[in-house]
């Protein structure tokens, strides 16, 4: 993932506590057992209507108060500026520059984890939103009215800009061969595009549809336990019943399926090129070099082709599952079924992210909040006295990593089956037809879980 000199992002294959085939078969058994259990015990929809209850008012008012919001905004903007500064002025060694680990580990991997636990936390710590809101406040103070949005966001665009932005981020991370300097330049360019989008279409509208990270993180936030709701003119923090806010995430919003498939496919590609597809990818790169293409360009072209191929493979599994479902649900088109059932793949996207990068996250966060924070430019400074800290690679053993990886894969797919079953019950109001409609999706889930586990165990084979 980052070419960091640490245990591989996918975790160690060596010293597995159980044979590989047992993990794979075990995951399949869990999915089949989950499907059977749902068929027997789950006879009415339980997750279709969001259910929540307000947390104590004093707590809610404090957490949503203006000083807290301003403080979080200033903190997030300071971190963004530190990314710019350390990337532009710091060392070009990716292992010693604060910007690299912050963007690709703390930000990219950490925010989804907190989103699943606590809801859409990125809305509170989005630096681009904080800057835009402060600018809008200044405009209102001078002009006496909020800044107008000159354009109406086209409905047909949906989440396509966010999906394309996510592809660009994955290319930067996995293929481009970035340096801290190029990462900072890309961050500045993305910030400019984000501010342009907010100025043209309105702050919240662009963040809801076009800004890649807001859309991506809020997708996981639908799984989270907390949310902010409006009661009249007042905002309040509520505690939600788990997984009741995720249904309908894709309904009527073009590009939602693309975003989800790119999220799953991008993580899968990062794992496959290190193990399962290493040999064919190497053969493709060698073939391009033999045709006269430079090694650097051949590597980028080969990796791009394989990334698109893996994303296409994930998309094919998704659409084949829907095509099988349509044999039972003939009244709905494939597009309508995609809108109805795409949310069932959100926990799978998170499971892939957690399984593939768990060891990387636990190890690099030690670096992030010790020597990288104390020496963000990598120039030998020691601001907080922790520049000499070393990573404890044994904080989680190989067996623990393997169980967490396999467990997250199995649980993510089992939850996806439950979400699909619940939606089918709401659609049919008939248990037998609901079960029949989900048989192909069960096969798709087993195929995806098997693929994910193969990627994990072949990575360092």
Ends apart, CA distance between termini: 17 Å
Number of DSSP strands?
3
Individual helix count: 18
Largest sheet: 3 strands, antiparallel
- Give the % helix: 55-70%
Q: From the helix content, strand content and strand pairing, which structural class follows? A: mainly alpha
What are the low-pLDDT stretches, counting only 5+ consecutive residues below 50? 4-14
Present the secondary structure layout:
Layout: H1 20-41, E1 52-54, H2 57-63, H3 66-89, H4 98-118, H5 122-125, H6 127-143, H7 160-174, H8 180-201, H9 203-209, H10 212-221, E2 226-231, E3 234-240, H11 256-272, H12 278-290, H13 295-326, H14 334-341, H15 346-374, H16 398-428, H17 431-437, H18 439-458
Describe the structure concisely for a colleague.
It contains 18 helices and three strands. With 461 residues, it is mainly α.
Keywords:
3% strand; 461 residues; 18 helices; globular
Molecular structure report:
This protein is mainly alpha-helical and 461 residues long. It has a domain at 50-246. Helices cover 66% and strands 3% of the residues. It has 18 helices and 3 strands. Strand 2 and strand 3 form a beta hairpin. Helix 1 packs antiparallel against helix 18 (439-458), helix 12 (278-290) crosses helix 13 and helix 16 packs antiparallel against helix 18. Residues 4-14 have low confidence and may be disordered.
């Amino acid at each position: 993932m980052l070419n960091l000199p640490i245990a591989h992002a996918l975790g160690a294959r060596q010293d597995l506590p159980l044979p590989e085939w047992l993990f794979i078969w075990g995951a399949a058994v869990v999915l089949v057992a989950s499907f059977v259990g749902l068929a027997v015990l789950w006879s009415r929809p339980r997750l279709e209507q969001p259910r929540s209850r307000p947390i104590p008012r004093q707590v809610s008012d404090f957490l949503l108060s203006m000083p807290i919001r301003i403080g979080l905004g200033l903190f997030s903007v300071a971190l963004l500026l530190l990314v710019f500064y350390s990337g532009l002025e710091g060392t070009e060694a990716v292992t010693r520059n604060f910007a690299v680990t912050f963007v690709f580990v703390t930000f990219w991997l950490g925010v989804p984890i907190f989103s699943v636990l606590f809801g859409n936390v990125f809305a509170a710590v989005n630096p681009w939103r904080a800057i835009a809101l402060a600018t809008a406040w200044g405009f209102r103070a001078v002009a006496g009215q909020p800044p107008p949005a000159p354009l109406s966001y086209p409905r047909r665009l949906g989440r396509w800009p966010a999906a394309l932005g996510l592809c660009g981020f994955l290319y930067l991370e996995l293929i481009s061969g970035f340096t801290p300097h190029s990462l900072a330049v890309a961050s500045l360019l993305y910030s400019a595009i984000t501010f342009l989008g907010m100025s043209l279409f309105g702050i919240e509208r662009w963040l809801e549809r076009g800004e890649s990270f807001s859309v991506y993180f809020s997708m996981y936030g639908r799984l989270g336990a907390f949310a902010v709701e409006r009661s009249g003119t007042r905002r309040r923090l509520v505690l939600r019943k788990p997984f009741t806010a995720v249904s309908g995430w894709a309904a009527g919003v073009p590009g939602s399926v693309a975003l989800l498939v790119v999220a799953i496919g991008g993580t899968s590609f990062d794992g496959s090129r290190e193990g399962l597809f290493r040999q064919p990818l190497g053969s493709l790169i060698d073939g391009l070099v033999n045709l006269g293409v430079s090694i650097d360009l051949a590597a980028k072209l080969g990796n791009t082709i394989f990334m698109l191929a893996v994303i296409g493979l994930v998309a094919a599994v998704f659409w084949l599952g829907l095509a099988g479902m349509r044999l039972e649900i003939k009244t709905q088109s494939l597009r309508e079924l995609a809108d109805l059932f795409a949310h069932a793949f959100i926990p799978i996207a998170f499971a892939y992210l957690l399984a593939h990068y768990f060891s990387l996250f636990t190890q690099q966060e030690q670096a992030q909040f010790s020597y990288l924070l104390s020496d963000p430019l990598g120039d030998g400074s020691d601001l907080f006295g922790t520049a000499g800290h070393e990573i404890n690679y044994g904080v989680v053993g190989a067996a623990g990593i393997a169980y967490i990886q396999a467990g997250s894969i199995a649980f993510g797919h089992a939850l996806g089956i439950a979400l699909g079953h619940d939606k089918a019950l709401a659609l049919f109001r008939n248990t037998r037809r609901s079960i029949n409609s989900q048989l192909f999706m069960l096969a798709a889930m087993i195929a995806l879980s098997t693929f994910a586990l193969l990627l994990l165990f072949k990575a360092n084979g």
